[in-house]
Write a structure and sequence with these properties.
The complex is a heterotrimer of chains A (about 220), B (about 500) and C (about 325). Chain A contains 8 helices and no strands. With about 220 residues, chain A is mainly alpha-helical. Chain B has about 500 residues and is mostly helical. Among the domains of chain B are: about 120 residues; about 160 residues, no CATH class. Chain B is about 75% helix and about 0% strand. Chain B is built from 19 helices and 2 strands. A two-stranded antiparallel sheet of chain B has the order 1-2. Chain C is mainly alpha-helical. Chain C has one domain. In chain C, helix 7 runs antiparallel to helix 11. Chain C starts with 7 loop residues before the first helix and ends with a helix. The chains are: A mainly alpha (about 220), B mainly alpha (about 500), C mainly alpha (about 325). The interface between A and B is large, with 52 and 56 residues.
Chain lengths: ~220, ~500, ~325
Amino acid sequence: MSVQLLHSLVLVLAALALFAAFAVLGQARLLAAIHAFAWQGALVAAVTLTVAVAESAPELYFSAVLTFSLKALLIPWMLHRLVRRLGLSRHLDRPQHPMLATVFAVGMVMFAYWLVLPLVQSSLAFTRNIVAISLAVVLIGLLTLVVRRQAVAQVLGFMAMENGLFLAAVSATHGMPLVVELGVAFDVLIAAVLFGVFFFQLRESIDSLDVDRLDRLNEAREDQP
Amino acid sequence: MSAALPLVTYTPLAGALLLGLLRHDRLAGWLNVALGAVSFGASVVLAWDVTRFGVVTGFGLRVDDFSVFLVVLNAFVGLTTSIFSRSYMRHVLHTRLTGPHGLRLYHAMYQSFLFTMLLALTTNNLGVLWVAVEGATLSTVMLVSLYRTPEAVEAAWKYFILCGVGIALALFGTVLVYYSAQHVLLHSAQGLDWSVLNAHRAQLQPAVMSIAFVFLLVGYGTKVGLVPMHQWLPDAHSEGPAPISAILSGLLLNVALYAVVRFKMLVDGSLAHTSHPHLAGLLMMGFGLVSFLVAGLFLHRQRDVKRLFSYSSIEHMGLMTFGFGLGGPLATFAALLHMLVHSLTKSAIFVTVGHATHLAGTQSIEHIRGLLRAQPGIGWPFLLGVAAIAGFPPFGIFTSEFLLLSATMHAEPALTILLLLGLVIAFAGLFRHLQPMVYGAAPEGLAPIKVNMLPVVLHLVLVLWLGLAIPAVLVAWLNHATVLIAGAGVL
Amino acid sequence: MGGDAVNAADTVLAVAQALLWPLAAPLLVGWVRKAKAMLQNRRGASVLQPARNLGKLFAKETRVAHTASPLFRVTPYIVFTATWLAAAAVPLLSTHLYTAALADVIVVAGLLGLARFFLALAGMDVGTAFGGMGASREMMVSGMAEPALLMAVFTLAMSAHSTNLSSVVDHQLTGGTLLPSMLFALGSLILVAVAETGRIPIDNPTTHLELTMIHEAMVLEYSGRHLALLEWAAQIRLLLYGTLIANVFFPWGIATTAHPAAWGIALAALAGKLLVLGAALAVGETVLAKKRLFQAPAFLSLAFLFALIGLISHVILEQGL
């Protein structure tokens, strides 16, 4: 494949990953949101792979495999299984004010673009333009945490942020040192397992995974004996 | 190369594995103490090595004057808290708040938390630093929800999500730092080694480094408990077991601040010749001052004794952040000393509070009454501990706050007024709650409990000592660290 | 392009291209129906059937409700003329005509808007419940589709530095690499096209079920010649959107010279592209079910989001390429 084609392929994949972030933000059906998240993971892995081919950076092959198996297969599979075990397969969780959330998300993209402009201007790497996209994915994940009230959806937002970070690492610096990448992946994996445990703890304590019901702790609460 | 270095860091890791497998809960408590003792012993040896050789490296780890001081502090607080936690967790087991399974989890996670803290301090790689700080969240989050009450689960969830988000932003900042280093360093694998970055810090791109620092400050600042990212901190402190509150306040907050300071050193070097050389310091001063004042005000509204002291932690972390932000040898020295005395005092207070809530059977301030009468063995240390944290003269916190005030007076006289105001507000906030808790009549029918006040006494005596006369060896130590951070010493 | 000497051959070609539109439009509709029938294991009517239907309608008597105003009578002519004009501005076979100067995408959108405006007025004119309902639904759908359409068009225009369709096509022919903005603009345009031409999942062109129909509700009162013109206009609109997608995003084969051979190739290429697009539409309509009307906003906001991401990608990702 020509280098030119590889470069534009990376851009397409990154744009699709951004779209997947929007899908995770707005998709009301939990399972569909999980699928969008899995696609995002696969896209980030594909970006990594393409950069590896284009830059002939062999260490990125490993990174791509790691991202793919963790973000596109393992974690979505775990969440999928949890959702089914919790009986939430048909659960709908509409974000509050979906249009407003989308508008905000677009604002986030603009903000991300503005923020990393000095970095983009100083870089020569062909992936430099993706840094803004990756920060936008991180910020949209953050927004997902704010507008979604369902614990599984919040975890998706959290994990989407991590996808953005992986994308950032690939696009800005062509990957982090191996030990860091392994450490981050390990942390993400542990976090996913712990989130699974928490779903059950949450359901046990508030009979729901609706995080809005977590309102016992505040400054002026009544005394509990 | 010193054997003490890996021993300090990896003893808790081995301990975590061991305690995770050990089914004997009584033995586990003792083993926990023993592991803490080994780690502490090794840290003292390590400190000795550092004073002799300057920097100790090996096994991918690197310890200098700044980190070794925190390593010793962490290992020490880890040890004393494990002594307290042995008896406290037995009590928890008796009251059936958790079972043997939970206890095993507790011990394993206690050690793995210590491991992440020590790894964060001893690693030279900024990426590994991130992994360790995130690991600290992961290992404590299950401990916050250990009692499985709705409040505990809620607190743990908030803790998990907020700190996870914060730390994600910090990783983005770390990526940007790595990016900025790639223009300078050809060996990209070293691009995250702090020592390498520090050697080339003048060549790092200023524009990228300033953006990176904003992300890092917000990210690690969440862990420090800076307002407005502090929401998780009172919840996690109030709902977790008392030893966890003690080590969260005593260790985690310090380590997060340590990370911020490490990055500040790089950013300062990078921005030295631009139009805004003190950007990082100014940001830290702003966040620190706001946290300090807001937390002081919040002290007045608290009804839960552990929440009260967690806001006090936010207040003091704000003060330290302000001190490091102010920069200059004196302020840095004061902030380092404050890290030390706050950590000792606050963990002592949380241990005492653990005993007091055990005695009173509640965490509600309104129902903890007359501790001095009910059990002087808890009441007096409580009174003295709060007096120390409020900055009463003979204690070490007075010294550090005084130094910080003088430094502020020198550099930014106008801000001294705000600092003094904040100190008064916080002082009033603590004492309006303290007075009824220790004085007055105790409620009927409180039977004194068996307590182990050794850790508290040890901490308070140390804080008192530091207030009366700082030992020369410690001054030299802190001065070395000050030279490292601020470029010049106070001596 | 327009700077060449205006000669007779060019004029002939331009007129031929304009005439091709109304002639080809019924064929495309016929092909979509045929493909759909084959997908459903039916033999289906001949591809020429829509054209025959039009002829039949023209031969029939035209009745007008006695409550109708003159507006009702003139609307079919206005709608047909406006749609045809809009279509004639889109490069069908060649970008190399002197009429290319007119081929501005804003003009096309404006003419289509004009047609829709009159159609909606006529729908309400007679005063039946269905007419008014159809008009209001049509306005809702188009009100949401138009921003998406314009946003997608702007994305194209920013790449080509022109809103002229011929220039856009020329730009696509020369700079044709895989670009994310193009991909998203294409996605957006497809969704808009589906909504604007009244296809599944927004509207069903074959049903007269009162609860769901949009376009059919508006033309319910028309008969004979009037109905034929309106149907024809709708067919041209489908061809217009199909051609827009085919020629802007897949411009291969379009004639850039006035040579007859180039025109032959262009005709064949266009026919091939439209065959594929028609088949894709048939597959889509077979696989998907019509959505409930209140889900249309979600569908169209997806189109808008596509267009927006396309624009963002162009600004952020494609700098300095």
